[in-house]
Amino acid sequence: MLKLATAISTAPSHRQGLLHLLSATRGFAFTPFHRNDSDEQPHKDQYPADAPVLVLSGPAACNTQQFAVRLAAAFNGEIISADAAQIYKDLPVGTQQLSPARQADVQHHFVGIRPLSDYMSAGLFAVEARKLCKDILSRGKLPIVTGSSVFYLRNMLDGQRNTPPRDVAGEEEIAARLRALSWDDAVHEVSLVDPQTAAKALPNDWHRLVRAVSVFERAGKPIGDFVPEKSDLNFRCAYLTMDKDSLRSRIASRCEYIIASGLIEETVKAMTLMPLKQTRLPSFVGYRHVLHHFDSFWFEDTSKTTLRKRKAFHKMLKNYIVASRRVAAEQLRFLRRDDSRYWAYSLDEYGSEEVALQDFADFLNAETAGDLPTCFFREPLATLDTEPVDMELEIYSDPAAVDLKMAEVQSLLIATAKQQGWPVEPLLDDEEEEELDRPHISRRRRRYLAQQ
């Protein structure tokens, strides 16, 4: 039997299973299907059009995506990704998209389908996702919406706000006006017309600021004043959680793995496709830290010694980890705050795939909150430490691994700079490598001394 996800603890289960067979009232019941190697046909259970839609969220470090794939295979489902970054086909590494081979096992939607130049708003996602849920239900299958983009989930669950459609020309003019300011000044300007959106905007999320100003100028009121339309779909919402210390450790390991898998190289490739200001890339966690690393180190006229490379790399990695922890904390606060809708499922206590699948069968079959399995609970609001304290690295604790990665990045940047016509000189090493235990002399200082 396949393991459900690496995030599930191997501790034994102490919960007695519950199974709510509702054939008398509903005419069907969710029963997990365990496929063996000898099975030639996939799971073929057919569900009625009023079956619930499973919404599975949680921090990415909880392996929510892999968990959803197991559930889809067990309950004849299809996966709808509610991840604002996974929709782009040019970002498979940094967004941890499943390989085409793994996506072929379970039908995926909204994964790697749009170029970076496109923009998928939360409202548009809500409309398309609801249509897709109804289409999947009409084919007798279970829709499983998985992801952690809280604005996408909120719009899908609460309904789309009937804001004015996008005006590309007008938004380009607004973007030019806002980008002439610093980020803090731009947020202040937007707060004068839409304080709610300005307060929630993540760093460098210019698209959200531009959209807020565009809506106000065309409708005369902020986005929050638009009343959303309710949905007739039956959403059953849960999120995965785990011990705080385990989650912090998994976030750090995940960031290291993504960088080792090619996040930096993928960012360089994206830089050659189109101007970054025309994309949402600078607002995505990981990519914006790599871009800042390029601007503050590689493209700066500073000395490129081994010691400086190591320091710059570790600064980028730690900022990436801290930002990922901060995003996870924001996601958990959002999910815990909406305790009338979301139920928590802990990955710390149950180590069997069979038990976990049965838990979610019970969760889908429950008619009322009182019927829910005891393993689903309301989680109190708590903080997730985001400071880079006691941050233990696995891959890049070895200086040799850092040196190898930075050498690869340097070679790629030099080759790309020659192709794109970027300045090459700042990317080159000093002619004489500084000793690691001696203070360095910058290239600028050397030129000054040579002129004296």
In the sheet with the most strands, the strands line up as 3-2-4-1-5-6-7
H and E order? EHEHEHEHHHHHEHHHHEHEHH
- Helicity range: 40-55%
Segments where pLDDT lies below 50 for 5+ residues? 1-27, 36-42, 432-437
Q: What is the rounded Rg?
A: 24 Å
The total count of helices amounts to 15
The description of the largest β-sheet is: 7 strands, mixed
**Structural class by SSE content:** alpha/beta
Overall shape: it is globular
Q: Can you give the mean pLDDT?
A: 83
How many strands appear in the DSSP assignment? 7
Distance between the termini: 74 Å
Percent in strands: 5-15%
Topology:
Layout: E1 53-57, H1 64-74, E2 77-81, H2 100-105, E3 108-109, H3 122-138, E4 142-146, H4 150-158, H5 168-179, H6 183-191, H7 195-200, H8 206-219, E5 235-241, H9 244-261, H10 263-273, H11 287-298, H12 306-337, E6 342-346, H13 353-365, E7 376-377, H14 399-420, H15 443-451
Parallel strand pairs: 1-4, 1-5, 2-3, 2-4, 5-6
Antiparallel strand pairs: 6-7
Helix pairs in contact: 3-4, 5-8, 9-12, 10-14, 11-12, 12-14
What this model shows, in words?
This protein is α/β, with parallel strands linked by helices and 452 residues long. It has 15 helices and 7 strands. It has helices at 64-74, 100-105, 122-138, 150-158, 168-179, 183-191, 195-200, 206-219, 244-261, 263-273, 287-298, 306-337, 353-365, 399-420, 443-451; strands spanning 53-57, 77-81, 108-109, 142-146, 235-241, 342-346, 376-377. A 7-stranded mixed β-sheet has the order 3-2-4-1-5-6-7, sandwiched between helices. Strand 2, helix 2 and strand 3 (108-109) form a beta-alpha-beta unit. The longest helix has 32 residues, at 306-337. Residues 1-27, 36-42 and 432-437 have low confidence and may be disordered.
